[in-house]
Design a protein that fits this description.
Strand order of the largest sheet: 3-2-1-4-5-6-7-8
Strand content: 15-25%
Order of helices and strands: EHEHEHEHEHEHEEHH
Structural class: alpha/beta
Length: about 280
């Protein structure tokens, strides 16, 4: 059985939905959990400490160990305080789950209104939190970092209108995952990403009761965060108990010699495109 006895896991955005499911599962498996949640509304407003406190109380009532953190991760200083505060209280950090995020629908013409907020939460925060935890893990020669990406950001076929800033943030986390995987591997630090689908407060599509539960995604996150996971730089998609690997496809190049023209590419585009779909 996968266990985290003696480990400390930090889950950002752990007061609701997916993050809460992750926090509960880590605690059930023996981890001491840092339940982070700024308690903000769907647009990033407010700051209700009871959101994180409730999950901590539930974990403790089940016999687990957890502490709360309420930092609003829209600033670098808050991200650093989150990590430093956890290490000061618990002495270590073995697992980081970058789950915190916002979803604001604004079509392209209006997407500038919330761009800065979504950038700070979706790009800057996972960068600064992961960067702060990296030397802590490096000193111990062990760590697991999980970023959060989305199938909505990965293809025009799967996306929806109004999610320019959201998609940019999720693909930025893919890039962060790649770099942290490359730089962390020599030090025993593995970085991967989860691409989850779950019926949380931001999910807008129809679903049946019992489908797309956050707890069904948690199994994948627990695996990526465990010692049993020995891979890095992988995106694991998770929805309703189904899991799969997503990765960029890189097909064989078509050689046009030293003087290619746009017309040559146009003529042989079906061949080029087919190579990329292998």
């Amino acid at each position: 059985m996968i266990r985290f006895d003696g480990r400390v896991a930090l889950v950002t955005g752990a007061g609701r939905g997916l993050g809460a499911a992750y926090a509960h599962e880590f605690a059930r498996r023996g981890a001491t959990v840092v339940v982070h949640d700024a308690g903000v509304g769907r647009g990033g407003e407010g700051g209700d400490h009871s959101v994180a406190d409730t999950v901590v109380e539930e974990i403790r009532a089940d016999g687990g160990n957890a502490i709360a953190s309420y930092e609003n991760l829209e600033s670098e200083e808050a991200c650093v305080r989150l990590v430093e505060g956890a290490v000061a209280k618990l002495g270590r950090l073995d697992v980081l789950i970058n789950n915190a995020g916002l979803v604001i629908y604004e079509e392209i013409e209006a997407a500038d209104r919330s761009w800065e907020t979504l950038r700070r939460v979706g790009i800057d925060a996972p960068f600064h939190v992961s960067r702060a935890v990296f030397p802590v893990m490096k000193e111990r020669g062990y760590g697991r970092i999980v970023f959060t990406t989305s199938g909505i950001a990965m293809s025009a076929q799967d996306t929806r209108a109004g999610l320019a800033a959201y998609a940019a943030g999720k693909m930025a986390q893919f890039g962060l995952m790649v770099v942290f995987a490359a730089e962390g591997s020599p030090h025993g630090i593995l970085a991967n990403a989860i691409s989850p689908v779950a019926a949380t407060r931001v999910y807008t599509q129809p679903y049946e009761r019992g489908e797309l539960e956050p707890e069904q995604v948690a199994a994948g996150v627990v695996f990526l965060a465990s010692e049993e996971c020995t891979v890095g730089g992988v995106v694991l998609s998770a929805a309703g108990g189904s899991f799969g690997v997503r990765r960029w496809a890189r097909g064989e190049a078509v050689d046009f010699g030293q003087q290619p023209t746009a017309e040559m590419i146009a003529e042989r585009w079906p061949e080029i495109d087919a190579q990329g779909r292998v």
